[in-house]
Design brief:
Blueprint: H1 2-6, H2 13-20, H3 24-36, E1 41-44, E2 49-52
């Protein structure tokens, strides 16, 4: 999701949901959760893509414990 948003390659909401393999309603829920974490995500009709309006990126890592 972050990869596509950062490259302005999401497409429309329907296309983005399809690329992610999720329902459109789930896409909107994930975008809302990201916004609540401080990500300024917007949609451009001209580019037909979501994009980050601020200079933040979402960084999630998995660490093995023990």
């Amino acid at each position: 999701m972050d990869f596509l948003i950062s490259r302005k390659a999401t497409g429309t909401p329907d296309e983005f949901a399809e690329k992610m393999g999720i329902a459109r309603s789930s896409l909107f829920q994930y975008l809302q959760e990201m916004k609540e974490m401080g990500m300024d995500i917007r949609y451009s009709n001209a580019v037909r893509s979501y994009y980050y309006a601020n200079k933040k990126r979402l960084n999630i890592s998995i660490e093995e414990l023990g």
